[in-house]
Amino acid sequence: MIEFGLLHYIVITGLGLISYLLGRELLIKVKFASIWEEIVFSISLGLGSISYLVLTLGVLGLINRSNLLVIFLKLIAVSVLYPPIRTFWLYKLTAFQKRVGILKKKSGVKYLIFIFISIIVLLPIMLMPLYPPIAWDSIEYHLAVAKIYAHEHHIKPTPFLRFPFFPQTNEMLFTLMLIIFDDITAQLVQFLMMVLVAIALYSWGHRSFSSRVGLWATALWLGTPLVLWLGSSAYIDVGLTLFVTLAVYSLWNWLYSKEWNWLILAGVFVGFAASSKYSALVFLGLLGIIVFYISIRERRYLAPLVFVTIATAIAAPWYLRNFYYTGNPVFPFLSSLFGNNYLYTAEDLKALLYDLQHAHGIGRSLTALITLPWHLAFNQDVFIMEAPLSKTYFFAIPILLVFSIYSTKIRGILALILAYFLFWFFSAQILRYLLPIIPLLSLLTAAVVERFFLWLPFLQRWSVHSFITGIMAIFLVSPGWLYATHKVLEQGPVPVTQDQRDTYLARHLLSYPAYKFLNDLKGSKYTLYALYDENMAYFADGQFMGDWFGPARYSRISSKLADSQALYEELKTLGANYILINKQRSRLELPDDKFFQNHFKLIYARAYVLLFELSEKPLKRKLGPELLKNSGFENLEGEQPSSWQHVGKPAIDTSGLRSHSGFVAVRGEGAENVFYQTVPVKPGGLYLLSYYARANRQGQMARLQVNWSNAQGGFLKTDIELVEIGADWKQYEMTVTAPSQAAFATVYVSPHEQSSVWFDDLSFVEVTYTTEGKTSEASPLDTNFSS
């Protein structure tokens, strides 16, 4: 695990160093107040520039590993060989050596101990991004689109993904890392950006307030669990936040230094932000208003033009791309203004906007606005909470409002925060959409806490002590550290091999084994329609389609489920040759007529997940001989059904009054009273489990359950599907694929939890298909995924 982690952090550090080289060369004439300010602006500008380099190569169809490596090597060569730049780097190296020498003279051991302790403390946080990607939006869209670009070596339309046209500056960096290394380093891009925000807060606090404020602001930022969650996932919110923070930071420096370089940088970074997400256009407008106001007050009329022109030029490529393909630069929004195209219907747009604006949050009434701070502190679940925001911000509100009266610095940033806050309140009330203002809020909170300490006479002497500063920083960062520690312990060891990765993904993503199976079987040569499984787009190596919106919307398929031939023709019209169905998200009924059985070949199954291959030639499904002995419970040995074992005290009725057929039926009262039987199976075979069941009262649940074990009796995995049992006898069934190492299957007759259910006439048979006189195994390949 150490080797795995070090390797990935070396790769992301390499990206950071190359970004620093590029950014620092572009900022040679900029005077920085500290080394930290220099680092954060150089690396961030370099990352944005590299993103546009990837975009340029992608548009030309030249985005591949060799071209990227050649460009990076040329960049390093220029830094080493070009005389003016080489002289600059030699000067920087000399200054660095002097700084290291000063630290050694002061207390080298002290700083080494500090670094060692910091690494140990930060270890849980550093482990979080090393887990395989499972976050919804990352695998539904952000990584999925990057994977397509990396595979095709071209930036192309992706009509079957959610938001096929969008600003994608962060996705360009994901594409880069997928080409160079893997998806873990793609997640580490956001981790790097999270660290850069922390450095920006420290340098900004140090420049404008004090080093203590910078340290506390950094601790607040890293002490927010939502920040750590987003910083370890391939979302784009941290990247957006970095660019927004540096845009405001740059504008702040321009306001106080009057240096045009800072105004230019403000335009560049707000342009990067707008090319990352549409919501950043709000900051373009807000910062533009500030620049315009200052220019009028100080009669520097060129400033707004420079700022807006640079920001617009930076963001323009993505908006022009949107307009070229859809006629709408902000697709899919503002369709009433720009019109709509074939991708989204009016119903799609209505549903999408409703989901964003009305499906979450607390409404938009005056009462909701007044109580919003309380909800953000103590009722965050209503805002789609992937991870919580720190409550420290809520408790700092009173002193923040008080000190904003006396401080122009605090008042100005607070006004910017409140403006975005109102935009968020009246648009999409999703918690992570607040992230762009969290660094600003962290800086202000740290500043007012320091002023509060200095304002109280009995705290003045103690507040300036470095020990108190350190304790306060530890207190502020502790919620994040505790959250990261809990997440790492909860998830277990970091998966470092392919088998460990597959096991981890199968544990967290129900349908992952089916995608793994299809990828192993067909490579990338397939087109899959996934019904109610839209977030799994990243894991399909072939063409993936299926979503609530767009040209492959679910309504096209769900409306055809009652007619298997119409379903087949609709899938063929879309170009699909496989269909995967996730039954857990929608309890739909599949056709069971002759056409469905002849043209939909089930090739892989597990609980709630079915993967079919569409067959032009008619197939015949064949059910093998019954594997269960005494499947109807009719044969008794003493008072127990022969061949069955039991746990607890399941009831048996032999009167024939409660049975589906024959005279015997069994009843389970709670999941602790069950019958079970173990039978031999073929590895990779496809098996159908079924039984008849009924219940005496409503709301009863039962399990369709198979436990798999190897030849030595070792447990491999379990398949469990829950079914609601009605008052009349009805057949319930589940089809499952045996793992590659399976030798035995244990079939259970079990209610769920405390339900009371009658069972009769079980069946467990192998499923095969016959084509033109040949019998084919339904599931020729499989990979073992332990539970």
Automatic annotation (TrEMBL):
What InterPro entries does UniProt report for this protein, alphabetically? Galactose-bd-like_sf (IPR008979), LipidA_mod_glycosyltrf_83 (IPR050297), RgtA/B/C-like (IPR038731)
Where is this protein chiefly located? membrane
**Residues that span the membrane, as ranges:** 6-27, 39-63, 69-91, 111-131, 184-205, 226-252, 264-294, 301-320, 382-406, 413-431, 437-459, 466-484
Q: Where in the cell is it found?
A: Cell membrane
All copies of domain Glycosyltransferase RgtA/B/C/D-like, residue ranges:
177-316
UniProt entry tagged with the keyword Protease: no
Q: Which GO terms describe its molecular function?
A: pentosyltransferase activity
Q: Which GO terms describe its biological process?
A: lipopolysaccharide biosynthetic process
Question: How does the protein's chain sit in the membrane according to the entry?
Answer: Multi-pass membrane protein
A GO cellular component annotation in the UniProt record: plasma membrane
Q: List UniProt keywords, sorted A-Z.
A: Cell membrane, Glycosyltransferase, Membrane, Transferase, Transmembrane, Transmembrane helix
Q: Which SUPFAM superfamilies match?
A: Galactose-binding domain-like
State one Pfam family annotation: PMT_2
Keyword Hydrolase among record annotations = no
Name of the protein this chain belongs to: Dolichyl-phosphate-mannose-protein mannosyltransferase
Q: Which species expresses this protein natively?
A: Neomoorella humiferrea
